[in-house]
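Chapter summary example.
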Amino acid sequence: MAVERVVGGKWGTCCGQACVAIDYLIVEEKFAPIVVGLLKETIRRFFGRPDYISRIINRQNFERLSNLLKDPSVAASIVHGGSLDSEKLFIEPTILIDPPLDAEIMTEEIFGPLLPIITVRNLSHLHYFSCFPVKQELVFFTLMFPIL
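The structure predicted for these 148 residues follows.
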C-alpha cells in the first residue's frame, strides 16, 4: 500500500508538479531492489500507456527537469525511465538510485516525475539527512519505532 501511495502522490494527477509531491525516498539498502520492483510494477498498473501520464506544464520546466538528468553522475543513477520527448513535453516516470547527494536533483525541489531513492544501511543513518535543505514534507512508511 505504501508504494501505491508513493506512485499516486508522485506521478498521479500532475506528474510531481505540485508542492506536496515526494522529492525522494530513503530506503534501507536491503529493501531497495524490492521497492524499485514494486514502483515499476505499480507505475505500469496505474498508468499503462504514456498517454495516461500528465505532461510537463511548460517548456521552461521541461528544460529545467531535463537538465537535472543531463548531469552524468545523475544519469548513471537512473534505474527506470528517463526518456524525454521535448515536442510533447513528456518525461517518463523516472526512478534513480543513489544520485550524488550534492547534485541539484537532491538539493532543489524537483517538481516533476523524477524520484531519487537514497539507500542507507539501516534506519539509524537517518540523522545524516537532518543537514539536507528543508523540504516541504517528510513522510515515513516504517514498522520501526522510534524513527529518530
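To summarize the output: The chain has five helices and six strands.
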